[in-house]
Amino acid sequence: MDWCRAVVLSTVFSMSWSAEDLTFPPGFMFGAATAAYQVEGAWNVSDKGESAWDRYTHEHPEKIKDYSNGDVACDSYHLWKRDIEMAVELGLKFYRFSISWPRLLPSGYPNHISEDGKNYYNNLIDGLLEKGIEPFVTLYHWDLPMSLTDLDWFSDYARVVFSIYGDRVKWWITINEPLIICDVVFDTGFMAPPIVSPELGAYLCSKNVLMAHAKAWRLYDEEFRPKFHGKVSLANHHIWFDPLTPADAELAELAREDCVGKYTHPIFSSTGGWPPSLEKVLEDVSIKRGYKKSSLPAFTPEEIALVRGTYDFYAMNHYTSRLIRKAREGEALTTWPLGDSPDLGGVVQRREDWPVTTSFWFYVYPEGIRRQLVWLRQKYGNLEFVITENGLSTYAGLDDQDRINYYKDYLRQILLAIKEDGVNVTGYTAWTLMDNFEWMDGYTTKIGLYEVDFSHPQRMRTPRASARFYADLIKKHALDPITVLPLNDTVS
Ligand SMILES: *[C@@H]1O[C@H](CO)[C@@H](O)[C@H](O)[C@H]1NC(C)=O
Ligand SMILES: *[C@@H]1O[C@H](CO)[C@@H](O)[C@H](O)[C@H]1NC(C)=O
Ligand SMILES: *[C@@H]1O[C@H](CO)[C@@H](O)[C@H](O)[C@H]1NC(C)=O
User: What's the domain of life for this entry (predicted)?
Assistant: First the structure.
């Protein structure tokens, strides 16, 4: 069969089954997500400690597009009942939110647990469970207590959280997106804390974050799993890389290892440790730059064993893709990972037909999510995958057909990964339940299923067309673009 005929046949074949089979597997879970600093507000209520993001937005408003901050945000600290109502309206199976470390432990250390902080999350968790919605909880979504400079105290914090909430929470994410915490923060200084150290700090951070995750997972495994039987993982941010030309194939694979493999090979591979190809390239680059050894800090054999296997499922955040090509001699490179890769000598660009969005780093390429899933399955075997974030940033407006199309296109690719490629995806999380403080974009970018009126004292939440689409999808347990369900818009 010639190549062209094969393509035509496979297109016809996939069209013919897709018309009938847009159903998700039985038990597939749909959820939506938020993160503490982006929605809670109440940054200074009762005894809450200051977080790195409180300090950063207060001292560097110029780093945020609209000079805003999360002081009030969606005021979910006070409006959590409405948040639960929205989860009910959508028919969510689970709600992913994060716990603010300095709200629970004001000093950062476990010497004092805030009563108000503890109650806030108890109320939220119990309120969700009453409605049959599972809490899916992230321990660390970037709001480090200002008293700490790194994640050294993470397992002590994790112990407090597992002890208080572990009886009711069965899904845990230790750390959200090491790529952002390390590579974006230290390469660009875009986010808190504003320290730029691309050649050393970023890689040191990568190792520290992996160690912090591993210790928290082992703590759960040893002390809490026997009685609570939950699942723990970390959530990675995935940017899918395609080569610009066939000659760039090896470089694209290195970029995938640098963006994703750096945070997955140590945990999910059978050998553990850094991805060997990346380790080699970074050592060469470091020596060329005049360092005595690789800026990617080595793991000892004990550390490799400590980190390897510290997962119960795979948590995948995915939004966007890139093309990469080899840099020309002397070509100026911007910073990794939102721009080029000086360490790999790669120039990163958008494919012309990938639509842009309101976030500068975000192009739309639905096939990227399927290819990323297949790559991970090929590398690490038949894991359980949960998509823990996916969604589109847009301008304001309730009739968000572009967001609906994004969800449809990406979910269809996930179905293809499940049905054609045998990837075991068991859940999907829409980012995000409602418009919120989107880090550097402040409130200028909208990603919510619900629109939030940030000038309204009650932070009025109104469902967008995409909320109706998502509720309908969840109800049917299948992709079907048509029917619209009534939703309750009233703020209680
Ligand atoms: C809390 O912060 C707000 C600004 O977001 C300020 O108006 C208020 O006075 C502060 N409250 C306390 C108790 O410090
Ligand atoms: C997918 O993972 C879940 C959870 O581990 C498991 O129960 C299920 O059997 C897996 N399905 C497949 C097809 O491997
Ligand atoms: C909408 O929700 C409010 C507050 O929970 C409730 O009072 C009202 O009866 C609901 N309306 C409908 C049509 O369900």
Answer: Eukaryota
Total-model pTM: 0.91
Q: For residue 472, is it within any domain?
A: yes
CB neighbours of residue 281 within 10 Å: 20
Exposure class string for 428-450: b at 16+ Cβ within 10 A, else e? bbbbbbbbbbbbbbbbbbbbbbb
Q: Which ligand is nearest to the CA of 314?
A: 2
Q: Which domain holds residue 329?
A: 26-476
Beta bridge partners of 452: 461
Q: Which pLDDT tens digit goes with each residue over 406-461? A: 999 999 999 999 999 999 999 999 999 999 999 999 999 999 999 999 999 999 99
With a Cβ cut-off of 6 Å, ligand 1 is lined by 44, 71
- 384 ligand 2 Cβ < 6 A: yes
Give residue 151's region: left, alpha or beta (phi > 0; psi -120 to 50): alpha
Ligand 3 pocket, mutate which of 79, 462, 485, 490 (most atoms under 8 A from CB)? 490
Render pLDDT for 295-345 as a digit per residue (tens, 0 to 9): 999 999 999 999 999 999 999 999 999 999 999 999 999 888 788 999 999
Residue 361 counted as domain residue: yes
Contact residues of ligand 3, CB 6 A cut-off: 488, 490, 492
64 backbone dihedrals φ, ψ, rounded to 5°:
-105, 135
Probe ligand 3: pick from 458, 488, 489, max atoms within 8 Å of CB? 488
pLDDT reported for residue 487: 43
- Domain count for the chain, please give it: 1
Q: What residue's CA is closest to ligand 3, atom 12?
A: 488
**277: CATH:** 3.20.20.80
Residue 419 Cβ inside 6 Å of ligand 2? The answer reads no
